[in-house]
Write a structure and sequence with these properties.
Number of helices: 24
Length: 374
Amino acid sequence: MSVAAKTQEILSLARSRAVQDRERLLLAIVDLCDAGDGATAVMESPPVQALLSSIFMSLVVEAERDIRRRLAEKLADAEWAPVALINVLALDDIEIARPVIASSPVLKDNDLVRLLVEATIEHQIEVARRPQLGAPVVAAILEQNEPAVLTALAGNVSAQVSRDDLKRLIGAARRIAALRTPLSRHPGLTDDLARELYVWVGQALRNSLAARFRLDQTALDAAIAESIREAHGGVVSEVDGTVVFPQEDERAEMEKRLLAKLDQAGQLRPGYLLRALREQKLSLFIGGLTTLGRFDPDQIRRAIDSDRPELLALACASVGIDRSVFPTILELVRELNDGHPGGGAEGARRAAGAFGPFAPDIARTAFTKALAKV
């Protein structure tokens, strides 16, 4: 069929108000997308462009999901596609939106930034994965600071990520473990940035970074080990090598510095809290739980001084402590805190329910709300 005939067919279908003709119209356009240069000529012809601008939006809104999906797949690479239509498809269900977000040349930086603000996390992740992502969109992703979206950006090696952007991502890797592997492989990583990342990754990635950038692993590992060594509560005298234990106020300040250093190095983990209790360091446990959960110290102190062990359980669940470990933690806290949190065996049974099948952030929210009622 000639370009003129195809154009006339599309216009005839557009004039019809019958539901089946409207679906035929969309399907005809979908088929045209596979027809090569002749199709482009049809779609770029003034009558068809006018048609697209006037009625295409209502057609798409009324169309079945399968038709919208096929249309999105066919229009993903089309430079002639109407801007409004592409933006509507980009906000559709993620399975429909994905090819458009990934490839459409019609979507500009401002459109992508709007998706980051208005669309779901799944849409935002697809934006972060888009090839050749522009600097304004990268800046918007960093500003929003959403972990899953940051992780997708870290794995997008074609995005316009500057050195400062990488530095911000590495800073975020301190709390977002998923960022560490893609960042360790990023082509924009430099020697100094690799050293910053080194202290927050596991041994396998450390070895990889050391081999790639010729880092001094001995010096870096010694610095990290020093942070862990201080956890024993004393410092080594430079005079005779003996351990000197500080006064109470000095100890509190030392613990605060220690926890900050471990947290910055990515070495403050849930297992450290159990170790602190076994070493009879309740204040270190409280400080560690406060730091890991980003709580106020008074919140944790109120929880462990209460008669509701489920409060402590919620706080522990929010930082990733396992259900199986909590009975030991509760027993040790009670031993070091004059039997608190109280509640006896019944309280311990209630506390077990705090480790339900939900995410840590839900446990954190529940902890905050429950504590407000104490």
